[in-house]
Amino acid sequence: MTADFELSPERLAKVEHLRDRYPTTRALCIPMLHLCQEQAGWLSPEVLAYVARYLGLSVAAVQGVATFYTSLFTHKVAPNVVWVCRTLSCELRGAKRIQEHLEERFGCHAGQTSKNGKFTLLKAECLAACGGAPVVQINERYYENLTLEALDRILEEHVATSPIAAELGLGRGA
Amino acid sequence: MANPPKLISARYGIAESWTLKVAEAHGAYSVAREVLRSRKADDIKAEVKASNIRGRGGAGFPAGMKWGFVNPKPGEKVYLVINADEGEPGTFKDRSLMENDPHRVVEGCILGCFALGANTAYIYVRCELALAIARLERAIEEARAKGYLGAKPFGVDFPIDIHVHLGAGAYICGEETALLNSLEGYRGEPRLKPPFPAVKGAFGMPTVVNNVETIAHVPGILEMGGEAWSKLSRLPGDGGVRLYGVSGHVKRPGIFEGPVGLTLREMIEEHGGGMLDPARPLKAVIPGGSSTPVLRPQDIVDAPDPKHPLHAWHGRSHIDVPMGVDTMRALGTMLGTCCAIVMDSSVQMVAVARNLMRFYKHESCGQCTPCREGSGWLVDILGRLVEGKGRVEDVDLLVEVANNMTGNTICAFADGTAMPMLGLVRKFSAEFREAASRGLQSSYRLDHACLSQVERAA
């Protein structure tokens, strides 16, 4: 077991701010899990236990919610998560090639974390951006109409300008 | 035909159209201000009913009728919930509304709340759409600061507030009762109906769940009047204008607005700019999101009976039939979201089936056995076919598994999985049988036709 998890005061204030929006406390569960993930990167057992305690729910209930949703991570991920959409519209426009390129660049398969530990590569189901296929989502941003060259450029810029770049000592490339 | 003026996408393409200042300079909130101050709730409901608007989320249920089902008992609070969990493969229209014109969504919610007697609206947005979420949240703050939301919107004594609620990545949460469970903080598993949401929805209260595009049409409907708006459509009983989307093998994939009743040929050739490569003709098109069975250009409408709903198009290609809820149903498919996936002659339909069924297997919530197991079996069988490990009986097995899924589950997801599967086998049975005996070429890939485009240097 690692040390107990706690949300930062700013994020806790956000949770409290949301309370008035809903007639039940339980409705805070998913918004709170999002805030925890934003802070911790993923939802470890300690995080789930913390949310359960805070909202007066069983750990099993919170875990049931967390494991249901694709965007909530119950396994550790790298600081950057790269989603490649592989559903039909993207697939027709080159999504598999995009994935192969990322696998080669990262030195890992989809579902794994890059050799340097900076990126987790995941296959996504429809990101609802079919008109811009092929599409990749890196953390919170969508990148559309991709070519391999554009993708390389984006990855380098993304790492260089990401808010955690300095903290991680990143300057260039994956 | 001259292009009619744009309504729902009127503010698309204007610089900073998502800010209150710009949106208001181009007409935002003028309808809500006038309507809240001078008209009655029942009057608004009557206009929406007269507009003949069919829900834009895919099922095509008459929205005016849905609004009419809400009849709260004393002490019950009514909720309006907006479904912005867009994720049906091929569909990408709602995102464009939230990113380009969030104030139209907010104005629609204000009108919807007022008409339904709801003081609270929740907009449930899939969490991946970060820009749409940011713009909606900002639009709500701006509207609140101006006094368009809050205790007295436009000075009228009827409090309205709107909240954005984030999903967490689950296609099934587009099903309205799964969405409500998710909103309440539970796993997104659909609920047994009845009770329907109009009776017992969000937090056990009477609730209307509308698609983003549906609610965003409400200001336009009230501005023109329901009847006049309805007549913008080319089809009876299915009113107005709508957003269309086209993706896949066309020159210009994208979103555009048009009257209800455009044909797939118009979508592909006029709005999509034609096929991506003229050397590779149209093979198949999925008309309205992946759950709608596929259509082929060579299929001809056979409706000699004057009473047949498709008689007017007797002898024409399926892709020349106007797209409406009833016409598409008569063709054996569905209108769905009106966002088409276009496939050219390079595409192998067994591979398409495997791609789509993988989606459904991943997204099945797992609550009902026929859906959870059936979607998995379909993927396994299709995998065998693709890899050349199939048997001739596998084609029949696909049909049998799909048939066992339909009508046997809590929600429509299983039908939405089985119908496109059955459609593909029916229309391309020779390809499936061929794959069962020989498999696909090992080098085959769905992105074959676009490889050079992805690999080209800028």
Describe this structure in words.
The complex is a heterodimer of chains A (about 170) and B (about 450). Chain A has about 170 residues and is an alpha+beta fold. Helix content of chain A is about 45%, strand content about 10%. Chain A has two domains: about 10-70, Arc Repressor Mutant, subunit A (Orthogonal Bundle), CATH 1.10.10; about 80-170, Glutaredoxin (3-Layer(aba) Sandwich). Chain A has helices spanning about 10-20, 30-40, 45-55, 60-70, 90, 95-105, 150-160, 165-170; strands at about 80-85, 120-125, 135-140, 140-145. In chain A, α3 (about 45-55) packs across α4 (about 60-70). Residues about 165-174 of chain A have low confidence and may be disordered. In chain B, about 40% of the residues lie in helices and about 10% in strands. Chain B contains 18 helices and eight strands. Chain B has about 450 residues and is of the alpha/beta class. Chain B is globular, with a radius of gyration of 23 Å. In chain B, strands 3-2-1-4 form a four-stranded parallel sheet, sandwiched between helices. In chain B, α13 packs antiparallel against α16 (about 415-425). Classes of the chains: A alpha+beta (about 170), B alpha/beta (about 450). At the A-B interface, α2, α4, α5, α6 and α7 of A face β3, β5, β8, α13 and α18 of B.
